[in-house]
Amino acid sequence: MASGSQRGLQFEPVQPVRAYQRIVEQIEEALARGDLAPGQRLPSERDLVSQFAVSRSTVREALRVLESNGVVRSRPGDPNGPEILPFSPGPLRKQMTRLARVDELTLSELIAFRMIMDGAAIQLASRLRTPEQLAEMEQTLVEMRAAIDVDFTAFSEADVAFHEAVARVSRNSLIQTCNEVVRGVVLGLISDKIAHAANSRALMLESLQHHAEVVEAIRAGDGHAAARIARQNLYDYYASYVPAPDRDPLRALIED
Amino acid sequence: MASGSQRGLQFEPVQPVRAYQRIVEQIEEALARGDLAPGQRLPSERDLVSQFAVSRSTVREALRVLESNGVVRSRPGDPNGPEILPFSPGPLRKQMTRLARVDELTLSELIAFRMIMDGAAIQLASRLRTPEQLAEMEQTLVEMRAAIDVDFTAFSEADVAFHEAVARVSRNSLIQTCNEVVRGVVLGLISDKIAHAANSRALMLESLQHHAEVVEAIRAGDGHAAARIARQNLYDYYASYVPAPDRDPLRALIED
DNA sequence: CCCATCAACTGGTCGGACCAGTGGACTAGG
DNA sequence: CCTAGTCCACTGGTCCGACCAGTTGATGGG
After folding, report:
1. Are strands A72-73 and A83-84 parallel, antiparallel or unpaired?
2. Residue of chain A whose Cα is closest to the Cα of B69
């Protein structure tokens, strides 16, 4: 093809590379190469000024970007200079929260995502769990039961603890983070509605029952059943807040 | 509980909140509230200086952070001021890549995530697809077959097109984006290894065969089978790059 | 030997300055 | 009337110098 032969000298749109960006790149490269490791310190801003041969404003803009990406942390007065941080999922979480908060995202989509993630985590957990971890999960069940007589928020916290325990067992930090983020966003959207629910005690009891069944299936090592029950539980718990026409995809995730 | 009664006056560790951070927060809040929407413009830096009552350096540091998070874009000379950007998966992918590069995220975890997401997308697609969308998927299969005789990268591109078509049908943009991001990260990690694989043609043929089976299951409306085949395909495709002890959780996602 | 003092740094913020661009208004030419 | 060219107010990018509050480690007195 004629156009194919020209691919070699195709031009790319050129956007100006700003000075602070090249500083960020240099530091990130040094980090990728291993010349810079977590725990080490960067030279002070004024030293960086002379090393990079730019003004302090430029150095500071680069540092602010690195800081917001979780790469370094600056503390005023620290004579050792900015610290290289170990990698943390914090910024990833921030980005995912942003993604989940974009208004084009339906409550239905969020809950579908939770059903998928939570189901997968439980499926993995029923295969990978140790006896101690199983005991840990059962302990969170006890706490949930106790929380029913206290408060809805207490129950909600215990519920979160259960799901976090499961996510830990899945040994997949991506699942863990996604679950955490989506749960937070969903709760932010409808926590007020749930709190005002009339028959909350009945809901809590039913939810507890479902969770117990999940743990039972995990104990038996039946990941498939455990995941199905978990998804069903999420559906029962949230479906009433989802507009009826949007419930179809959720049901598609339950039926096998 | 005694400690429980004190929870009300528990103190939290306080770290200095810098001026530029509060600017970032205010703008992000306005965006979350909907007072600011993609496509709109921010006032010029000098206007922001007077609105926030801080210096231009501070405003600029805030803008640099927002810019590195993909929230705004500044162009020199633009009289309309910085532009609010629509959400882009770019920064998300950057963070995930960063984590993957330091083994904070295992290749095994990434692939497990892909198996989960892709499986779920296909399960949803087999329920929600229209006849036109089914035809669209079959079209991508044709392109994959044609690409086998061209190039591995061409095949890879066609494969991406297939998965994107499926993700679209799932009508869940969260799944869509997550899939896209993780796929990009995985490819960045092992694309070079795959390219050097000896029997790449055999692999491509096998992969095509699997994809065809998936489409067949989608046509039949058997979401469960379709998802299982898809996960199996991903496992066969990537397992050899995963350290043997890490393959156990992946297999847990295939067995039902 | 311990502890209070102090001075040399640190990062955070400010204000002003200059530059190379952009884009809209304005004007001369059709 | 419309078009094409010029021009200028304003944009963001960068630099400079200054001040402040805070930390830290050395210093010196008990």
Report:
1. antiparallel
2. A95
Distance CA A148, CA A128 (A): 30
Tokens for B191? 């694309």
Task: Give pLDDT, residue A221.
Answer: 92
Binary contact (B116, A112; C-beta < 8 A): no
- Which among B110, B100, B197, B115 is positioned nearest to B156, based on CA atoms? B197
In angstroms, the CA B227 to CA A55 distance is: 56
pTM: 0.87
How far, in Å, is the CA of B32 from the C1' of nucleotide D19? 37
Bridge partners, A72 (sequence order): A84
End-to-end CA distance of chain B: 45
The 10s digit of each residue's pLDDT in B137-190 is 999 999 999 998 888 888 889 999 999 999 999 999 889 899 999 999 998 888
pLDDT at res. B10: 67
**Using the CB atom, is residue A61 less than 7 Å from strand D?**
yes
Q: What is the DSSP string of B199-244?
A: THHHHHHHHHHHHHHHHHHHHHT-HHHHHHHHHHHHHHHHGGGS-G
Query: How many CB atoms are located within 10 Å of the residue B35 CB?
Result: 10
Q: Are B218 and B125 in contact (CB under 8 A)?
A: yes
Model pLDDT for residues B188-201, shown as the tens digit of each residue: 888 777 767 666 78
- Which pLDDT belongs to residue B9? 61
Indicate the CATH number for domain B90-252. Answer: 1.20.120.530
Q: How confident is the model at residue B1 (pLDDT cuts 50, 70, 90)?
A: very low
For residue A41 the two structure tokens come to 């310190």
> Is pLDDT of A199 > 80?
no
Q: What is the DSSP letter of A83?
A: E
Residue A168: pLDDT band with limits 50, 70, 90: very high
Region of residue B77 (phi > 0: left; psi between -120 and 50: alpha; otherwise: beta): left
Domain segments of chain A as ranges: 19-84, 90-252
Q: Under an 8 A CB cutoff, do B95 and A98 touch?
A: no
Q: How far apart are CA B237 and CA B128, in angstroms?
A: 27
Residue A11 has phi, psi (to 5 degrees) of -95, 150
Distance (Å, whole) CA B95 – CA A132: 33
| B-chain residue closest to A226, CA distance | B256
| Min Cα–Cα distance to chain B from A83, Å | 16
Rounded CA gap, B163 and A115, in Å?
21
CATH number of B19-84: 1.10.10.10
